[in-house]
Amino acid sequence: MREDMQYTPFDLEPADALVLFGISGDLAHKMLLPALYHLTARGDLTVPVIGVSTADWDDQALRAHARQAVTETVPDADEEVLDRMAGRLSMVSGDFTEDDTFAKLREAVEGFGFVTYYLATPPALFTTVAAALAGAGLNHHARLVVEKPFGHDTASAERLQEELSQYFDSAHLLRVDHFLGSEAVEGLMVARFANTLLAPIWHRAYVDNVQITLAEDFGVADRGPFYDAVGCVRDVVQNHLLEIMTYLAMEPPSVTDPSALGLEKWRVLSATRTMDLADTVRGQYDGYQGVPGVAPDSTTETYFATRLFIDNWRWADVPFYLRSGKSLAVTATEVVVELRKPPLELFGAKSGGTPADIIRFRVDGDTGIRAELMLRKPDADGTPVTVPVGVDFEQVLGRQQLPYETVLLGATAGDAEYFAFFPTIMESWRIVGPVLDPARPPLPYPPGSWGPPEAGHLPGLKRWHQPSARLFDDG
Q: If 0-12 CB within 10 Å is exposed, 13-18 middle and 19+ buried, where does residue 265 land?
């Protein structure tokens, strides 16, 4: 294994300060600052946070902005917690391409033993900022954390890795996929490996197919310029959906450190066939080309559905159906595991056949697990009916942490478990490679639908198990 393919060690240094590049941006406003509030409320944010941005802000302006970002997301925000959070914030303003900005940053972090630099910036700035940090001598006793996407294909991901490795080695470079910070996504692994009820049936002898859906009922809004250059596959399929698939399909790691976990994920992805255009449907919602920042003749996909196979002993010949899209019927991220039907039809012949049992995992929003089982209906003919049995995680387990709470805590505490390993990133780009930027234009679909009708006819697909607006909503 090449040096740049080494796994990140799991015994990383804790940080004495967190530097957030792009603190005035949309990601920080919607995700990072609210996450910092919750970390403060739990007592997990114990280090100062230094924001770096081109915005002409002083400390007070940053603190006011942070308060606004939190109260928009947390209506009942505690004033005492907000004060404690604000007290940890300070600001460095300046252009990311100018030496003076990093000279001011060097003064701001002086005296801290170890620093985490978190880049909530466009990917085009990753190498620029990393080089500037090194030029100012700020890459020693420090860790660099970069947001997704990591590259836009196999070649660019490898090139970016080589560039960043000039300034931060593999032990001091972390790559964000915030789905890895989701408690519900991590809970897939716990549900599989901590319950002997599920473990024996989790393979090809009992599973007929697996469906993974990431649906959003809204369009690209003001992200037109970004989204049109990226599209659905690069935005969520190459990272989020394939990461979920690894949790569903991986073997149990032999030990509980991130390196062992990363190795098992890599094994799943390395056994996964590359995507086939013949098994794929791309779509674009009506009106997308009129979004500001979107090319009027854009062929960028806002919907994507495909069939995958994992060629190993556990999953051979079991189809994994992945789909995602904007402006769909509901917002939901859900896994459906459809079990094989009994070998003989004993109970449902009069009603046209007994449906297969399915297990749903909702991994975003109203997270939980729901099994749909067949039970006898108490009437004259005893017709089997589908009965839901499940758990609403928040109702039973309490508030679920936001993914970025876990990500930011891992970035400061030095926990690599919630970050993507470079070998798995490379396998993911290999898998999606054949469907990136095809010549065939995407198919149109109306907003509020489930995408192009052609997606319901993927090879081997009986039907999609559509998620409801809420996990236990059958309306």
A: buried
Question: How many whole angstroms separate alpha carbon 349 and alpha carbon 365?
Answer: 38
Q: Is 104 annotated as a binding-site member?
A: no
Packing angle, helices 242-249 and 422-432, rounded to 10 = 110
Instruction: For residues 63-77, give the mean pLDDT.
Output: 93
Cβ proximity of 151 and 157 under 8 Å: yes
> Is 216 annotated to bind ligand?
yes
pLDDT tens digits, residue range 333-351? Answer: 999 999 998 877 766 556 6
SS3 284: strand
pLDDT of 272 strictly over 50: yes
Residue 470 backbone dihedrals phi, psi, to 5 degrees: -130, 155
Task: Give the DSSP H or E segment for 108.
Answer: helix 99-109
Domains of the chain: 3-176 (3.40.50.720), 182-401+434-457 (3.30.360.10)
Is 251 annotated to bind ligand?
no
What lies within 8 Å, CB to CB, of 191 at 6+ separation is 198, 361, 369
pLDDT of residue 80: 97
Side by side, the strands of the sheet bearing 320-325 are 384-392, 368-376, 358-362, 332-339, 207-215, 320-325, 303-308, 280-285, 443-445
* pLDDT tens digits, one per residue of 376-433: 777 656 677 777 788 887 778 777 778 899 999 999 998 888 888 899 999 999 999 9
* Ligand-binding site membership of 178 (annotated): yes
Q: Is there a binding annotation on residue 30?
A: no
Task: Give the mean model confidence (pLDDT) for residues 301-323.
Answer: 98
pLDDT over 80 (residue 260):
yes
**How sure is the predictor about 4, in pLDDT bands with cuts at 50, 70 and 90?**
very low
Active-site residue (options: 29, 172, 240, 465): 240
Is 303 in contact with 282 (CB distance < 8 Å)? yes
Give the C-alpha distances (Å, rounded to integers) separating 104 from 86, 113, 129, 138, 141. 20, 17, 14, 12, 18
Residues 6+ apart with CB under 8 A from 30: 69, 73
User: Of 471, 435, 466, nearest to 451 (Cα)?
Assistant: 466
240 among known catalytic residues: yes
140 is in an annotated binding site: no
pLDDT score of 11? 65
The CA-based dihedral angle spanning residues 253, 257, 263, 268, taken in that order and rounded to the nearest 10 degrees: 50
